[in-house]
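To the wet lab folks,

You asked to see what we're planning to order before we commit. Fair enough. Below is the target structure as tokens, and below that is the sequence we designed to fit it. If anything looks off to you, flag it before the synthesis order goes out.
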């Protein structure tokens, strides 16, 4: 038993420690910077006919589209941070989910910037309208996340004491976090291999942009729903307080709404994302009011 605990502690401290996070952050930033210049170089090589690919993709037509690639690596780092904060702060873990979906929208905006049509018929062009929706949604989500973090800190200040039950719950969350790291890494590799195989089989065209934008993250949020359900069930062993059960259940609903947004496109997808974060904010606000009444 002691050996298992030591092994678990060794794995956790080497994968999800502050020192490891710093190393991964530097590595991801370097890779993101290099990938940006590589993407930019490919765009200009194609433009001046230095290379000849028969790939018809908006991501290879405009230099602004090159920003899409480093943002993808930044999103990978955000996924790591989500796992990193899971054992430390449940509110921060949920916040990271909201930050990830907001960054996905921001990444899409950079892609859309390269193809918008500046004309008097702005509100009649479908792509320009979607760009407007995404722009407004990103600003609104940014503010909602700020409010959510603020409410999370208020809750944290009220619960400074760490009971043995909380320590046991944290230990369970550490175990889940350790399992998630190789799981998400494996999912990312599998997605990349499948996507590359699809390109090699139809070399004349990249997949549709919507499918590229949803790569990995539709499965990612599906796994998060399952993780949230597991956390909810485990929490029953350590608390029977109604408001905490509703809070955790509400966060699951919020994650499900985000996952549903990948199954649709256009304005409906954007609305689902905003509603998901609004619902999460309403849940934590009401939860904090319950906490004040108990105190």
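Sequence we intend to order:
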């Amino acid at each position: 038993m002691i050996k298992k605990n030591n092994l678990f502690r060794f794995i956790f401290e080497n994968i999800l420690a502050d020192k490891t996070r710093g190393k991964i952050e530097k590595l991801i930033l370097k890779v993101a910077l290099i990938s940006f210049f590589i993407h930019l170089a490919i765009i200009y090589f194609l433009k001046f006919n230095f290379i000849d690919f028969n790939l018809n993709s908006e991501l290879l037509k405009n230099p602004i589209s090159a920003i899409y690639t480093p943002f993808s690596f930044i999103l990978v780092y955000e996924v790591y941070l989500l796992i990193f904060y899971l054992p430390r702060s449940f509110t921060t873990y949920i916040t990271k989910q909201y930050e990830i979906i907001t960054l996905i929208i921001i990444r899409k905006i950079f892609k859309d910037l390269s193809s918008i049509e500046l004309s008097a018929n702005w509100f009649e062009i479908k792509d320009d309208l979607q760009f407007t929706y995404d722009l407004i949604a990103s600003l609104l989500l940014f503010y909602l996340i700020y409010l959510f973090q603020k409410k999370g800190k208020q809750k944290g200040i009220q619960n400074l004491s760490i009971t043995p039950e909380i320590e046991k719950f944290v230990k369970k969350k550490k175990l889940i976090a350790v399992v998630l790291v190789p799981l998400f890494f494996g999912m990312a590799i599998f997605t990349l291999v499948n996507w590359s195989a699809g390109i090699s089989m139809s070399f004349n065209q990249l997949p549709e942009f919507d499918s590229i934008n949803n790569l990995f993250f539709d499965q990612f949020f599906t796994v998060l729903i399952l993780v949230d359900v597991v956390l909810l069930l485990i929490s029953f062993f350590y608390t029977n307080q109604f408001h905490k059960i509703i809070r955790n259940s509400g966060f699951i609903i919020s994650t499900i709404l985000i996952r549903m947004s990948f199954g649709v496109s256009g304005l409906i997808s954007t609305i689902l994302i905003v509603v998901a974060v609004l619902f999460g904010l309403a849940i934590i606000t009401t939860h904090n009011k319950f906490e004040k009444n108990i105190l």
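Structural context that might help your review: The chain has one domain: 2-294. The CA atoms of residues 72 and 83 lie 17 Å apart.

Thanks,
Computational group
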